[in-house]
């Protein structure tokens, strides 16, 4: 009776962490292509689990799609390095958009949205050429709300003392 292997052994697929274990390189390639679609700008955007697009996608168990794609569509994957997309789309697995970079480079190159989550235009930090992490408008609004709340509490406390 054949013993089922516990992992991928020496296969290049052993580098794909969390990959469900029934895949071959060929089946994984087909699986990735099945779950993705070509966009107008040449990206091959994959749909992983969950509704969120534009972020790294998980597929085939708990594997990162861009890592799996690098392993079976590009080849020569180095697990010591990160994979990122030259197009900036984290859910893109187009082989010509994938490259391996050091972890530091990957975070530096990560494309930042031009607006904060409340839709304000973000400010560039001239020192780094990157957007500031904290949005000035949101920050000011938050401080404003905090001061108002504090003022209300002080007023309430005064009123309470006044009554006694
Ligand atoms: Zn792309
Ligand atoms: Zn904001």
Key terms for this structure?
164 residues, alpha+beta, 13% strand, binds zinc ion, 2 domains
Characterization of this structure:
34% of the residues lie in helices and 13% in strands. The mean pLDDT is 88. With 164 residues, it is of the alpha+beta class. The radius of gyration is 24 Å and the shape is elongated. It has a two-stranded antiparallel sheet. It is built from four helices and eight strands; from the N terminus they run αββββαββαββα. The protein has two domains: 1-111, no CATH class; 114-164. One zinc ion binds at residues 116, 118, 120, 135, 137-138. The site of one zinc ion (ZN) has 6 residues, from helix 4.
N to C succession of SSEs: HEEEEHEEHEEH
Overall mean pLDDT stands at 88
In spatial order, strands of the major sheet run 1-2
> Measured on Cα atoms, how large is the radius of gyration?
24 Å
Q: Residue ranges: pLDDT <50 for 5 or more in a row?
A: none
Broad structural category: alpha+beta
Q: Total number of helical segments?
A: 4
Q: Identify the overall geometry.
A: elongated
Q: Beta fraction of the residues?
A: 5-15%
Bound molecules: zinc ion
Number of strands: 8
State the end-to-end distance: 87 Å
* Major sheet description: 2 strands, antiparallel
Report the helical percentage: 25-40%
Instruction: Supply the number of structural domains.
Output: 2
């Amino acid at each position: 009776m054949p013993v089922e292997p516990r992992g991928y052994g020496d296969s290049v697929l052993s580098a794909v962490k969390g990959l469900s274990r029934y895949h071959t390189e060929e089946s994984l390639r087909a699986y990735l292509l099945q779950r993705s679609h070509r966009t107008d700008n040449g990206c091959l955007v994959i749909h992983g689990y969950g509704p969120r697009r534009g972020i790294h996608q998980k597929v085939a168990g708990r594997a990162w799609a861009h890592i799996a794609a690098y392993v079976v569509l590009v080849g020569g994957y180095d697990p010591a390095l990160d994979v990122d997309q030259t197009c900036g789309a984290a859910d893109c697995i187009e082989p010509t958009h994938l490259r391996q970079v050091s972890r530091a480079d990957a975070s530096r190159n990560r494309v930042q949205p031009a607006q904060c989550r409340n839709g304000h235009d973000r400010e560039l930090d001239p020192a780094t050429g990157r957007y500031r992490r904290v949005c000035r408008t949101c920050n000011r609004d938050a401080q404003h709300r905090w001061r108002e709340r504090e003022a209300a509490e002080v007023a309430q406390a005064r009123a309470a003392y006044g009554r006694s």
